[in-house]
Design goal:
- The complex is a heterodimer of chains A (about 300) and B (about 450).
- Chain A is mostly helical.
- Helix content of chain A is about 75%, strand content about 0%.
- In chain A, strand 1 and strand 2 form a beta hairpin.
- By secondary structure, chain B is of the alpha/beta class.
- Chain B folds into two domains: about 160 residues, Periplasmic binding protein-like II (D-Maltodextrin-Binding Protein, domain 2, 3-Layer(aba) Sandwich); about 200 residues, D-Maltodextrin-Binding Protein, domain 2 (3-Layer(aba) Sandwich), CATH 3.40.190.
- Classes of the chains: A mainly alpha (about 300), B alpha/beta (about 450).
Chain lengths: ~300, ~450
């Protein structure tokens, strides 16, 4: 202690600083401990499992190094699953943001019943994904579903929503967007209400019409909101799961990366090691996407 | 103003960055979070000799838990049976837990429970899952328990108990056991001028289907079961009828791409794409059938009560038709049994056995069959009560002697059933080539055998 004090006198902890440090530690330690035990430990454990050939539930496993990764990336499965993941993510994020903004613009008026309309739009977001999936499955069912009855009435045949992989993916995207639209709408609505009236007024005085005002004033001022929504909806889409398991039982249409991890780990052949590898790949993708968003996209965001 | 707003601004950016960065890491880490305990990488994994547990001197535990997925909407009758057991004696209390909506969900919960969760004492295990539990050393052989508790094993229908025999030991007791049945809409039959009976053979139905399609007004003359729901099970009847099979009888020799199998499946595919009189159910064929979507379908005996009560027409039931290579109709058995986990105390295992004995006694077996439509699993069970209420159940009972144990490829290969469902979906819903699909299925099934089964048997 003396030696430290003589060598680095400036960094010696005064009694007060030590006390502050201990208080800080007392406040953060429980949280840090919880995060380490329940988040980072399983994360590392999962990376370790991804190097095993392990059947879920079995007491024994064989180390295979990077074998699971090699199998995934060389078998053609990677291309298929990552393409589905990309289609699902781009479609759901794009549609959720675009339609969410549209709904927010519609709701951003002082009309009677606006509160009720907002609550109605937001409600699906808080419903259980699995329940929503099951309910919509019966609407989409090409044989006995409500949608097929409506289509029949107007002389159309229902697409094979459940048995044709392409239609299954379309169905899941539609329902996912329906469920999450309210979230984007509510956040956008808050953003719209924060757009200062004086700036819009100034644009108006300068002769800008409503469309011009929207694209040159409102939309740029909403960019922090859009950025926030982009990050959160991409993360959510990449982890969408409950809806998929309810609507695509065999995983033939909407087999995204996380759904593939579930199916291989818990359903098909219970390959927990392989499934852990898929989760690790997903983790890496999430980290990369988040970094890109933070570094590149945020530069283009206009904060007031 | 500027300074404070700058501070606020930079604070906002930093907070946002931190928030987003941390939440991204947090969420993805949560996505990664697997279960608690892990496997050992030293030793084990190979085949081990069967060790029967010695129950002498063991006292049964006071409370045991029974996990079921309530096959055939059986929650009400199972609760009644559990209550009757609890009232019949004071030593053991059974707690009924709905541990999943179907056989896959309960299996998932059981597999997860192996790595750290609470294990049940009695588990409802399906035809395609028990062997996996046996291979992974997760359930116990029951023969010493049969002896200790004096089970009347001779009274169980031989083929049903025999289904759980492997390595000279029994790994489960039959419970919600079924066979597939041919369901038909009697009104549609009448309109088509057919007599009130099912077809003797699939070829006979082939002749009827066009007549049915022309007169019934239904979307399909025949509807295949939803592929996610055990397509590999009912189709065994068609494959066997043409002299094929997913694999050779009582063997892991995969034969799903044989000429016979391809012919059998091509025959069915033609109904969909050539004759356009058949289709595949989306969610549940019994629901569709009851709604009048199809004139005929194939479903489990466990669907019988459900079909009869939900249809607004007279439901006809017949044994599954035969194929050209068969002199008499043969159909597979299926459904689920009950077993006991390995990693619980002998006291709990003994108490579990006591309940299983009660659960499968003739009186309870009949009560269960009456409520669900599953076949009575005991020879001495008197089906009069069932037949009085549901005369159609006679067909299932009569069909029992003509059953054959399922192909190893479906029930002993982990995930084999789902591979079959996926390939059948390609054939029946995407018009893919039968031979190519069956070749690819064979490759997939052989890989599962080599990787996952061979090292353990």
């Amino acid at each position: 202690m003396t030696a430290v004090t003589t060598k680095r006198p400036r960094q010696a902890l005064s009694g007060r600083r030590l006390r502050e440090w201990l208080i800080f530690l007392a406040f953060v330690a429980p949280n840090v401990a919880l995060i380490v035990v329940f988040t980072y430990r399983p994360l590392l454990q999962n990376i370790y499992y991804s190097t095993l050939n392990w059947t879920l539930g079995s007491k024994f496993a064989t180390p295979v190094g990077l074998g699971n990764y090699r199998d995934f990336f060389t078998s053609g499965e990677a291309r298929e699953v990552l393409t589905t993941t990309a289609i699902f993510t781009v479609a759901t994020v794009g549609l959720t943001l675009a339609l969410g903004l549209g709904v927010a613009l519609a709701l951003n008026r002082k009309l009677p019943g606006a509160g009720f309309a907002q609550a109605t739009v937001f409600a699906p977001y808080i419903l259980s994904g699995y329940g929503v999936g099951l309910a919509w499955l019966y609407i989409f069912d090409p044989n006995i579903g409500a949608l097929s009855a409506i289509l029949r009435d107007v002389g159309l045949n229902s697409p094979e929503w459940i048995n044709s992989p392409r239609w299954t993916l379309t169905m899941v995207i539609i329902v996912y967007v329906w469920k999450n639209l309210g979230y984007a709408a509510v956040i956008y609505l808050a953003g719209l209400q924060a757009v200062p009236g004086d700036v819009l007024e100034a644009a108006d005085l300068d002769g800008a019409g409503p469309v011009r005002r929207f694209f040159t004033v409102t939309l740029p001022l909403l960019s922090p909101t859009t950025f926030f929504l982009l990050v959160t909806t991409i993360l959510n889409s990449l982890q969408a799961f409950d809806l998929l398991i309810a609507m695509d039982k065999l995983g033939r249409g909407a087999r995204t990366l996380i759904f593939d991890a579930y199916l291989t780990g818990f359903k098909e052949q219970s390959q927990a090691g392989y499934s852990a590898m898929l989760s690790t790949v997903l983790f890496a993708i999430l980290v990369v996407i988040t970094l890109i968003q933070l570094i590149v996209v945020e530069r283009r965001v206009h904060y007031r | 103003m500027n300074t404070s707003s700058n501070l606020h601004r930079s604070g906002l950016i930093l907070d946002r960055r931190r928030f987003l960065g941390l939440s991204a890491l947090g969420i993805s880490a949560a996505a990664l979070s697997a279960c608690g305990g892990g496997p050992s990488t030293s030793g084990g994994g190979g085949a081990s000799a069967v060790e029967q547990i010695d129950f002498s001197g063991v006292k049964p535990a006071k409370e045991v838990t029974f996990w079921t997925s309530n096959p055939g909407d059986s929650i009400k009758v199972s609760t009644e049976i559990v209550n009757a057991f609890n009232a019949s004696q004071s030593d053991i209390t059974v707690k009924l837990v709905t541990a999943g909506a179907d056989y896959e969900e309960i299996a998932q919960k059981f597999q997860t429970a192996q790595t750290g969760g609470d294990l049940p004492d009695i588990i409802n295990l399906s035809d395609v899952w028990w062997f996996r539990y046996k291979m992974n050393d997760q359930i116990i052989p029951l023969d010493s328990l049969f002896e200790a508790l004096e089970f009347d094993t001779d009274d169980y229908v031989d083929s049903l108990l025999g289904d759980y025999l492997y390595d000279d030991a029994h790994w489960a007791v039959p419970w919600a056991r079924s066979t597939p049945l041919f369901y038909y809409n009697k009104d549609h039959w009448k309109k088509a001028g057919l007599s009130d009976q099912g077809p003797q053979s699939w070829e006979e139905f082939d002749e009827w289907k066009t007549k049915l399609a022309a007169t019934s007004g239904a979307k399909f003359a025949f509807q295949f079961p939803a592929l996610a729901g055990y397509a590999g099970w009912t189709l065994q009847n068609n494959l066997w009828g043409w002299g094929g099979g997913w694999s050779k009888e009582e063997s892991f020799d995969i034969t799903c791409n044989s000429a016979e199998a391809v012919e059998a499946l091509s025959f069915l595919k033609d109904w969909v794409y050539k004759d356009k009189v058949a289709g595949v159910a989306g969610v549940d064929q019994i629901q569709d059938f009851a709604a009048g979507v199809a004139s005929a379908t194939v479903g489990s005996t466990g669907d019988l009560i459900n079909a009869i009560t939900s249809a607004k027409f007279d439901v006809g039931v017949a044994p599954l038709p035969a194929g050209p290579a068969e002199s008499e109709r043969i159909c597979p058995t299926g459904g689920s049994g009950v077993g006991i986990p390995k990693d619980i105390s002998p006291e709990r295992q003994l108490a579990a056995g006591t309940f299983i004995k009660f659960l499968t006694e003739p009186e309870q077996a009949i009560k269960f069959s009456e409520a669900t439509g599953y076949v009575p699993i005991r020879k001495s069970a008197d089906p009069a009560a069932i037949l009085e209420k549901t005369p159609q159940a006679q067909v299932a009972i009569d069909q029992l002697p003509n059953t054959r144990s399922q192909d190893y490829a479906r029930v002993f290969l982990p995930g084999g059933d789902l591979e079959m469902a996926n390939h059948m979906a390609s054939i029946l819903t995407e018009n893919k080539d039968v031979q190519a699909e069956m070749d690819s299925l064979k490759t997939a099934l052989e890989k599962i055998y080599t990787d996952q089964v061979k090292p353990h048997i």
